[in-house]
Write a structure and sequence with these properties.
Layout lengths: L2 E5 L8 H14 L4 E5 L5 H5 L12 H9 L11 E2 L5 E3 L4 H8 L9 H9 L5 E5 L6 H9 L2 E7 L5 H17 L5 E10 L4 H14 L5 E7 L2 H9 L3 H4 L4 H29 L2
The chain binds adenosine-5'-triphosphate (ATP).
The site of adenosine-5'-triphosphate (ATP) has 20 residues, from α1, β7 and α9.
Pfam family, one: AAA_31
Subunit structure: Dimerizes in the presence of ATP but not ADP; ATP-binding is required for double-stranded (ds)DNA-binding. Interacts with DnaA.
Catalytic activity: ATP + H2O = ADP + phosphate + H(+)
Length: 274
């Protein structure tokens, strides 16, 4: 059974893309089949995986979503790229911003991405969707398509207001479109352990949200090496395998996998008792 997870936070630069890459490749290193979906018009995920000119790709997420809306046929694996470290990628690019506008007048505007992902999810153990830094139509589509959400939060920014908005949006999507949507947890990223500020943010998050949400045990350290990976088109495991950021992403991958295993066991039990 595959699991679809959206990495979402409407604030920009919180580590969504870096986490999508390193969680995805981390899961692939554990033998899982993984599809990464670039649902951000900036195409940063596509760029980070070494496809440095996303806008020049002949087929991208916008292409297949448009075909899906127009009810034109497409091959399930149309446009899917393969990365040397064992993950597949449905690339995204600037064409998604035009989609964001055209979706408003589409009947199935909130579930176009879900329809597409449903055609391919059985081929994978995990599908990770890297969201735009907004709560617009594409992010709603990602939340409608997902089984769960991971919220990366930057350690040096107090997320209180943004978090409330995001949690409200998730609750609304759950009520109106996708009742099974759950929150896997909040991942604190770019933690600078030399300052007290990061520790404070982490403390505040755990204090204010810890009883409602899982705050992942693992925190991702601030790391120049992690920031370098996107230009290299590699994961942190390939770029700096012995560094702290690689160790942290490895531990985070393990936490996510444990959640996935528990969910599978629960589902299995429910299926048996039917
Ligand atoms: N652990 C880290 N340490 C230092 N820099 C990092 C770390 N993780 C990510 N970065 C850098 O911070 C910037 C923002 O990260 P990233 O692109 O992953 O965030 P994002 O939430 O996907 O951004 P956007 O909202 O623009 O899509 C990038 O330049 C990235 O290389």
């Amino acid at each position: 059974m595959s699991k679809v997870t959206a990495l979402a936070n409407q604030k920009g630069g919180t580590g969504k893309t870096t986490t999508t890459v390193n969680l995805g490749i981390g899961l692939a290193m554990q033998g899982k089949k993984v599809l990464l979906v670039d649902a951000d018009a900036q195409g940063n995920l596509t760029d980070s995986l070494g496809f440095h000119e996303p806008d020049n790709l002949p087929v991208s997420l916008a292409t297949v979503l448009t075909k899906s809306i127009l009810e034109e046929p497409y091959e399930p694996d149309e446009g899917i790229l393969h990365h040397a470290e064992g993950v597949d990628l449905m690339p995204g690019n600037i064409e998604l911003s035009a989609m964001e506008v055209s979706l408003v007048n589409t009947m199935s505007r909130e579930t176009v991405l879900r329809s597409y992902i449903n055609t391919i999810r059985d081929r994978y153990d995990y599908v990770l969707i890297d969201c735009m830094p907004s709560l617009g139509m594409m992010t709603i589509n990602a939340l409608a398509a997902a089984d769960s959400v991971i919220i990366p939060v930057q350690a040096h920014y107090l997320p209180a207001k943004g978090m409330t908005q995001l949690l409200q949006t998730i609750a609304r999507v759950r009520r109106q479109i996708n009742p099974k949507l759950t929150i896997d947890g909040v991942l604190v990223t770019m933690v600078d352990n030399r300052t007290n500020f990061a520790k404070d943010i982490s403390f505040i998050l755990r204090r204010d949200y810890g009883d409602k949400l899982r705050i992942f045990q693992t925190e991702i350290p601030l790391s120049i090496r992690a920031a370098e990976t996107s230009a290299k088109g590699k994961s942190i495991y390939a770029h700096d395998p012995h560094g702290l950021a690689a160790k942290a992403y490895e531990a985070f991958t393990k936490e996510v996998q444990d959640i996935g295993e528990k969910r599978r066991a629960k589902q299995h039990k429910a299926d048996l008792s039917r």
